[in-house]
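call fold(seq) -> tokens
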Amino acid sequence: MADHRRILLEGVATDVVRDGSELVTGAGRRVSADTAVHLPPVQPSKIIAVHLNYRSRVEEFMTRLPPAPTYFQKPTTALNSHRGEVVRPPRCRFLNFEGEIAIVIGTICKNVSPSRAEDHIAGYTIANDYGLHDFRDTDAGSMLRVKGSDTLCPIGPGLVSGWDFRGKTIRTLVNGIVRQEATTSEMEWDMAYLVADLARTITLLPGDVILSGTPAGSRPVEPGDEVTVEVEGLGALTNTIVEGHAPIRVDLGAQPSDSEEVVSTALGGDWELRGVRAPRSPRARGDGSGSAER
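ret:
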């Protein structure tokens, strides 16, 4: 396996390869991986994410999987990197982590079979598909602000080629405590299936990123929290949550909400047992008939 990264070296984006605890440039210069300023390892033209995929996540929300995968898109302006700061905007309370494995496309991919899809994958990286659920009432269909706000898509630290996704452990830790843990054996649709499914109607380009879903346990985090996603064979992606300074304008658009839909999604299937009550209920929590994404 090879671990390819992009770092900021003397103000210049530089491609490097990890060699143990060091990162090596094409010219042979060595930099400590622990002190390097990481950039996202790829520059995608699009970021596509699957809604539900892990069995534990489905069971957590007492719902059911659709007969085929459903997806949403995150804008590339949401990209963030290893050790980058993830911003929770003012007046928002429900910023949830979602540890995931990201597929990175290596060659142009269109209308391929699942058996040939892996030929078009450059490798894999770690992602944290953060969700700002305060905007779920208005954006549950598109997930645009929920999942696409600035800084909410850290990926990295590197793009690992030659990695086999089968039977690998994924876990998310908040301040050193494990909050999510599963294996890729839980996935209903594996990496090759997701690529082939999307490529039926969407041309996938080199560098494009596909987020493959998260297991149970996603919960809100607070400014000051350190969140790390570990994937067996891919390393660890760490980010710190910070409070945003720029206020969300109050003179137009939907405002942050703490409705039943927002609270139930942010706090998981046991939210009612925690004694949490929301002030209003614009729609009942889905049993599979509503939006599948959590």
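Confidence is low (pLDDT under 50) at residues 272-294.
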